[in-house]
Amino acid sequence: MNQADIRSLTFEELQALITSRGLPKFRAAQIYSWLHEKGVGSFSEMQNLPKSLREALEQEYKLYNCSIDTKLCSESDGTVKYLYELQPGEYAECVVMRYKYGLSVCISTQLGCKMGCSFCASAIGGFRRQLRSSEMLSEIYTAQADLGERISHIVLMGTGEPLDNYENVLRFLRLVTDERGLNISMRHISLSTCGIVPRIYDLAKEHLGLTLSVSLHAPNDEIRSGLMPVNRTWGIDELLRACRFYTKETSRRISFEYTMIDGVNDSDACAEELAARLHGMLCHVNLIPVNTVREKQYQKSRADRLRRFSEILEKRGLTVTVRRTLGEDINASCGQLRAAKMQT
Ligand code: SAH
User: Fold this and answer.
1) Which of 105, 156, 188, 276 makes the best surface tag, with the fewest CB within 10 Å?
2) Domain end: 62, 82, 108, which one?
3) Are both 35 and 166 inside the same structural domain?
4) For this structure, is 334 an active site residue?
């Protein structure tokens, strides 16, 4: 039986539920604090609730927790990768990266992915199901409890396409930024999409103040459609139109992700074409040397190519960064650990 998912409720929804049971309002505040501020994984830990109430909650509600199946720690940069088990046989990945400004967690938003980008390990094994808001929260609470440190930044860049799980992701964002819970600022959250155009418009209208990352990876439809099937539904013109709407609506700069793949999208001509397309946009380009995935044939662009590509973009007035590769020694890029587990 699917028990009600109490951790996915907003404070107001929890309060309505508690008062409908004839209980005082302050019980809702206590439960919410246990769930989201202290991040506990069981009702029995909610020490200031009467035993009878803890037992009743246990009967009626389920805490969809992540439990740690595998934990890998990078020796070179302190990156920690978790493979979580959700329900038996269901696995999700989560990575914690250590930066000067704090700990940033990269979470999964779906089990598997429908998008099928050709360089990404996440789609291997197909799509299984959407993650609940409570499960995305649990990815963070579990890592925090394990590390004994507070997480300050979140990137929705793990397995899955966040805008293909729109309702649950939006609810997650509301819960994780709630000052009665983990209280993470929207300014410290990035959401990465492969370009589900209608949802970019929806997100823009929410005015959330988070950073939108768009996985572009190519300067034209020909190359992009070859790498990313989603481009056959919404081509680059349509995508960039949505991005311009987003920046106009939110005044937030978009971060374009561009994975550099040897001989595929890293020529001078590609750089010129990309610069022309992004001309005048409130944006920033993040170049990522492609992570070699065991199941895929792509190779990283050479260092001199990367440098030249970045120089061309800068000369054309774009702001460019080259992503530092973290956790390479522990297979920290999208879906690799999960894919390996699913094959065993
Ligand atoms: N579905 C979302 C978020 C998940 S992927 C999206 O597409 O944006 C997070 C980022 O990692 C995306 O930019 C994705 O294109 C990139 N990525 C996936 N596999 C990669 C690989 N092998 N090397 C480098 N980047 C990769």
Assistant:
1) 276
2) 62
3) no
4) yes
